[in-house]
Amino acid sequence: MVRRRLPASSCQLCKGEDSNDMVQCDRCDLWYHFGCVGVTGDIAQVEWICDKCKFAVWKYSLLKRRNKENHFRKKKQRRKPVSIQSLSSVSSKQRKILALRKLEEVKKRERDLRRKFSILEGLVDHLDNDKLPS
């Protein structure tokens, strides 16, 4: 969006004076001189996102991809669960210990998933808040 003399919206990079040759980020609504961000007046007809917002989107997608990769990597590394019923030669005390370990593993996985979900939810909220007009 090309700007036409809006007060108190100086360039976020150089903090210089306002001019008619400025562009507004369609995501964070901050203003930049054409020369500071390397665009021309043709940008008025196209959606434009500043480098700060591009970085935030890139970082979010990178975290999402890493979490997915880590999930699959950990999944491959996990041992096959031991079936408690197939351990006929194991004492009942040992079976209970194995059952407790298995329960602890399940609880740990659940905590990790909740933590990851919370992080992703926070990122999504942060990105959604950046989209809202101020």
UniProtKB/TrEMBL annotation:
Main location: nucleus
Biological processes annotated in GO: positive regulation of DNA-templated transcription
Record bears the keyword Manganese: no
Nucleotidyltransferase as UniProt keyword: no
Organism: Pseudolycoriella hygida
Name of the featured protein: Transcription initiation factor TFIID subunit 3
GO cellular component: Set1C/COMPASS complex
Cell compartment(s), UniProt: Nucleus
Gene: TAF3_1
InterPro entries: Spp1/CFP1, Zinc_finger_PHD-type_CS, Znf_FYVE_PHD, Znf_PHD, Znf_PHD-finger, Znf_RING/FYVE/PHD
Pfam families xref list: PHD
PROSITE patterns membership: ZF_PHD_1, ZF_PHD_2
